[in-house]
Amino acid sequence: MSSHLATVPDALQVHATDGVAVALRPLRGGEEVLVAGRAITLRADIAQGHKFALHDHRTGDEVRRYGLPIGRASAAIATGEHVHVHNLATALVGECTYAGGSGAARQAKTPVETATWLGYRRSDGRAATRNEIWVLPTVGCVGLTAEQVVRAAQTRHADVIARGGIDGIHAFAHPHGCSQLGDDLGGTRALLAGLAANPNAAGVLLLGLGCESNQLAELLEAIPLAVRAKVRTLSSQGVGDEMAAAAKIIDALVADAASARREELPLSALTVGLKCGGSDGFSGLTANPLLGRFSERLASAGGTPVLTEIPEIFGAEQALLERAVDASTFEAAAELVNRFKRYYLDQGLPVSENPSPGNIAGGITTLEEKSAGAVQKAGTAPLASVLDYGQQARQPGLALLEAPGNDAVSSTALAAAGATLVLFTTGRGTPLGVPVPTVKVASNRTLAQAKPHWIDFDASRVLDEGREAADAAFLESLLAIASGQPTAAERNGQRAIAIWKRGVTL
């Protein structure tokens, strides 16, 4: 999607065909604002990040932003009027037949990519940004036991962690793994297997209870053979003192992991998850396009950006699908989007049940508008692969991953897909962190200044410094984090997982 940016002190029109502009600061009714060479007199107060009309719209007219339709006018809208939930409504319906699939998109290779970072090269050829020991409980019954095991191990190995022998020891408790059936249990198993395979985990202890549905043998079998050597298992019911048995296993895993050393690696060695949460009217102007430009660079270098949050591409999916590298990828992506829509419809829910109250307060009105901003995280990179929930990204280029929009669930799914960094844009702010470094990118300066203990990069720099300078600063920040500099979430101890629960509970 091409954009024509017309930056002015007060407001921004993203694309030349747009019928709305976005306030870059709070604007007052009666104020005259210059947008793309036109003077617009505002008919109401416009909050920062909110929209106002650049021309009259009749009831039923299409309203455009980012060069895409974001809904239809539910009432007549006059030039200079506030455009939001009172006069703009979604036009989304259910499953669609998508055009395209010719395979015309081709991955362009960057002639010379000089960016490098310091990471750990694993035995299967993939690269890690961290060198850690993870304890993954098979079932919620031993979640607290896993945390107890890790607290004791962190004390025993505090000196090893302090001198950088390993980057940490962590447990990731969850409430699932039993009283689940069929695909629901399969999803839990696939997600945990994906986490166990993540390169950032140098050693993994799968801690079971013994009688749960998610049996250790089946979970171990779901882990790719190429990485299974780093995984150990323990059934708590199968030993006398599970704490002592777990400690012995972790001590051995730490000893093995401590021999790893960082080495200089190319940008192409990165697999990066793309996520937005608590979006506002600025997310699609600053933070998401910033990620998009990085995604283009990463994909063209041979790296792997991973896009997810399938419900948050509804309304903007055609532009993404058209970039599929071949017909089979197009068909798989189209089927995934329609399958997700059917997931809503089967529950008697509309596919447009979004945006959230926080999104609306920040200036986003419809799901189409949210989606048009959200897909910019992938830039214009060709769509190279489609992944089921829990499946690993194994080929270069942009991947589309099955997962919902929920911040914790989708971010965990990105880690399970093999992402060793998650780039998380936000306009409202969140302290959330997942097992891999979670890089928070603020869409606006107010958030960045108010929550420096949450935020790693202020994307509003794009408006002040220009794209080139902001992109360079962002890349420098990412490479430092990939090389070991802790994120705000890591410094705050914010690490957790959430599993997508879709079925009945027995």
TrEMBL record:
Keywords: Lyase. It comes from the Bacteria. InterPro entries: GD_AH_C (IPR048332), GD_AH_second (IPR007392), SAF (IPR013974), SAF_UxaA/GarD (IPR044144), UxaA_altronate/galactarate_dh (IPR052172). Signal peptide: none annotated. Residues 18-89 form the SAF domain. Belongs to the UxaA family. This is Altronate dehydratase. It comes from Novosphingobium jiangmenense.
